[in-house]
Amino acid sequence: MALTIVVLGGSFAGLQVAHRLLKHTRNTHKDLKVILVSKDSHFFWNLASVRAVVPGVLKEEQYNLPIEPGFAKYPAESFEFIVGSAEAADLDAKTVRVVTATGERSLSYDHLVLGTGTRYMDPNSPWKANGTNEEVMASVKSTQEKIRAAKHIVVAGAGATGVETAGEIRFEFKDKEVVLLSGGDQILGGDAIAGNAEQELIKLGVQVKLGARVTGSHELPDEGAQGGKTEVTLANGETILTDLYLPTMGVLPNTEYLPAKVLRDDKYVLVDEFGRVQNAENVWAAGDIISEPKSSFIIADKQAAGVAKNIDLVLNGKKTTPVKLIPVDVFVCAVGRSRGAGRMAGIKVFSFMVYMIKGKTLGTQMMPGIVDGSSF
């Protein structure tokens, strides 16, 4: 009987774990079978979503690639790709119920890896792969068209996604009025680089509005002078009328299919220092579904590598080792396609260096190697 490892989630963490197991663990376990389950048939490089929504800047293949061809080099009996979503997991019986376009399947596993990440509250959000590839690309293209047509744009939420989105739009369209709303008295949650990032936004011409927490929004009827516009309401009672409202706040973990015993109060997954899910046997997790110490591509990358290594150690009868994260806290935020703000630990990084590290490509050059496994 095959040794079956089910990996849920076809994003950064899930792809890396699947490739590492197939490339390395299969050398000592020829009966290994990896089943990768992804709601999206494609890998959406969401780090570049803030630039992808700006019309005419990126080609679709720069931020969206099919997953299955990247695994074609492995024996057919060692890998299966399922486009579907996990609906329920029985961690005692070691089964997962998956819903696909053609029906339901029950998958039995020896080890289970959770990498289903997070989503934005707005189901039409283009910042993450919230649905099928058709739905995700439709959201991106719709946002492109709306940005092209809008003269006044409100970006709500001044975390990294909001800051980068406002910067990308204003960098490309100097004739558009772009307003960034921050619920707090500083952008980026008051991080040490907040002041630098705000100054870069102002240099671009972005209007930064602090202490502007959004409490609601609604689209006005098409008829009349204000037809088709959106009215955004702030906590202080102020309203802003805009051609396009882009919310970037409100992230939720994709954990509804999991039993409460493996979740924290905030619905993120409980893990130990080895990447093992607590209160469950042979279940592991990596990436945004954990959100500790925080969500980031670099952290997800390290967690996925650590989980794959520990599964390999367990299968070979060896002791697991703690997942090693980066030794210093790094945070870089692109502001347009030429500037940015960042720090490594407590040391600020020059704007030009942030551009070279992140802003120049938003990491799109790494995507093919992640999809086909050549990066691991």
TrEMBL record:
One cellular component (GO) term of this entry: cytoplasm
Family matches, as InterPro entries: FAD/NAD-bd_sf (IPR036188), FAD/NAD-binding_dom (IPR023753)
Transmembrane helix listed as a keyword: no
Keyword terms, alphabetized: FAD, Flavoprotein, Oxidoreductase
One Gene Ontology MF term: electron-transferring-flavoprotein dehydrogenase activity
Domain of life assignment: Eukaryota
Residues annotated as domain FAD/NAD(P)-binding: 4-294
Family the entry assigns: Belongs to the FAD-dependent oxidoreductase family.
Name recorded for this polypeptide: FAD/NAD(P)-binding domain-containing protein
Organism: Apiospora kogelbergensis
